[in-house]
Design goal:
By secondary structure, this protein is an alpha/beta fold. It has ten helices and six strands; from the N terminus they run E-H-H-H-H-H-H-E-E-H-H-E-H-E-E-H. Helix 1 packs antiparallel against helix 5. The protein is elongated and about 60 Å long.
Length: about 230
């Protein structure tokens, strides 16, 4: 159970906690494919099969493990690889990525986000803590957060304890005084608990807890979090 008296700050995951990520990525990949059709038609043709752009992005993870924490760089370099394989100008990777990235920031928030973040921000400093490359300012949530920390900026990703400790430091509190809110069992929940934070599992799809250890406090919406913490 949570130690309410010790909670002085809240860190929140972004993708699949505040919005569903895969519809966003699918839409961004469609916009990218349309752009390639106009500006790099050979690439568009070579990678016209559904899912092909995502496959080469996943391939880049193996080719460039040094970029594992930087999803923007992985996506940019995967586009560059696709352009090169098709015989198009690899320098088009920069504008192509910007088209993708702009659409990636157009997220469809879960309907509990604005109300609950507003209420929580009145009582606690909120820190965005993400392995992804969403920008809280560009998605329209910047006003709620006192700080934002990503794996891309920091250089290591959740569940590494260092990024959780850095998030606590950004809120100027000790790790044990932070409640981390996230959807991923391993990177968010177990990562936070193993780093000395408190944690709540956002389980919007009623999934089973996969570990032998007892499940932490689990919620199906942020409304439950707000009712519990701010009434």
């Amino acid at each position: 159970m949570l130690d309410h008296a010790r909670i002085k700050a809240i860190t929140l995951d972004l993708d699949d906690t505040l919005w569903p990520i895969w519809p966003t990525i699918a839409r961004a990949e469609t916009v990218l494919a349309d752009w390639l059709q106009r500006h790099a038609p050979a690439t568009a043709t070579l990678f016209s099969r559904p899912g092909a752009l995502r496959e080469i992005r996943n391939q880049m993870t193996t080719l460039r493990p040094d970029l594992a924490s930087d999803l923007s760089a992985l996506r940019r370099e995967s586009i560059r690889l696709a352009l090169g394989q098709a015989g198009d100008d690899p320098s088009l990777a920069e504008p192509a990525f910007e088209v993708f990235f702009a659409e990636r920031q157009r997220v469809d928030l879960f309907d509990d986000v604005h109300e609950c973040l507003g209420r929580l921000a009145e009582r606690y400093p909120l820190v965005a803590l993400s392995n992804g490359n969403a920008d809280v300012q560009r998605v329209g949530l910047g006003a709620y957060f006192s700080a934002s920390l990503s794996a891309q900026q920091f250089g290591v990703a959740k569940p590494d304890p260092r990024i959780f400790e850095a998030a606590a430091a950004a809120a100027t509190v000790a790790p044990a005084e932070v409640l981390h809110v996230g959807d991923d069992v391993d990177t968010d929940v177990m990562g936070a608990l193993n780093s000395g934070l408190q944690a709540v599992w956002v389980n919007r799809e009623a999934k089973a807890w996969p570990h032998a250890s007892p499940a932490p406090w689990t919620i199906s919406s942020l409304h439950e979090l707000c009712r519990h913490l701010v009434g």
